[in-house]
């Protein structure tokens, strides 16, 4: 068996076997197969595609290319949640404590943000002292004791995906459905959960701009997970406007706190309750989605989710006084209102651009080496469909660099559009697969 033969086979549209796929991945990780041959294979896959079994075997080979988290010492059915990324997406900060508060074991490996999408780890680290570098012993102990731990991906999880993604990024082979699905699911399978709930974003601020593409990706990932023996559910959610109102790390922590205390934005609350309901069913804490929904609403209303968040922050070394008094979280030197130049209904908010404005202010990283300012970002005052008078505030810019404010304001106004006639607001939940 040689890589040359496999490239020719795939180029001719033939399916690769399990043995051939594992040979390819193992050879690439061990550097026996060079980049130029793997690039040729990735391009052949883009043109010829992969069938269901090939995609599953590729995912498993990538998942087993490095460490596999052993969660066998964690009691109960472990449920993980993965989002494909968006603007203002602080869902894990709300959902994790909600699920843990009803006894669902949440053992989550989370990532950092890159570009216009934020990362759960960056948001949590805006809390003073909060540590996402946990030993395996501490990680498992926390999940058993308080049902939740969130750690950074410091282990050697799915190294084949890291190598392949870097290669695909520079060879024009990113946008192939099987390759996207296997990239996401290999990391999820390596993280060791029994069930995986997916939040697949669609819209301007998402990786998948169209509902059709989001649906195809969701189906592909659900199929992979089920073939690998996992309990799977995918929720397709709207990312045609930022989730909630806050964009920026400490600002999003504050909004997550408000939500856990029962005062959060409708869209964020609805998304967290929906995902949590499916987590409850997967973990066998509820028999039906409706029962799961009752559990999630109840834990928000009775304060258990909020208390679990405080317990979680304390367990990972965070300063609980900051979350009990959010005004003590990092705050920006300049908080500047941006006023509406006209009266009308909000017709559109270019979501990806909102994320990029937060990046301009210092709230994200353009490269892995970039240093994030946890205090900066944007807080919107209006959602799509809402009416606003000329001169009223559209949003507040939070900045520590005064010289960046003018460009940020100009770009925010350009990202906003108005309508003279009413605009129907979109539902946060598009489909469930």
Automatic annotation (TrEMBL):
Record field: catalytic activity: thymidine + phosphate = 2-deoxy-alpha-D-ribose 1-phosphate + thymine; uridine + phosphate = alpha-D-ribose 1-phosphate + uracil; 2'-deoxyuridine + phosphate = 2-deoxy-alpha-D-ribose 1-phosphate + uracil
GO molecular function, one term: pyrimidine-nucleoside phosphorylase activity
Residue ranges occupied by any Pyrimidine nucleoside phosphorylase C-terminal domain in the UniProt entry: 345-419
Any Pfam family: Glycos_transf_3
EC number(s) stated in the UniProt entry for this protein: 2.4.2.2
Keyword Transferase belongs to the record: yes
Classification via InterPro entries: Glycosyl_Trfase_fam3, Glycosyl_Trfase_fam3_N_dom, Glycosyl_Trfase_fam3_N_dom_sf, Nuc_phospho_transferase, PYNP-like_C_sf, PYNP_C, Pyrmidine_PPas_bac/euk, Pyrmidine_PPase_CS
Subunit-level organization: Homodimer.
Protein name: Pyrimidine-nucleoside phosphorylase
Organism: Dorea acetigenes
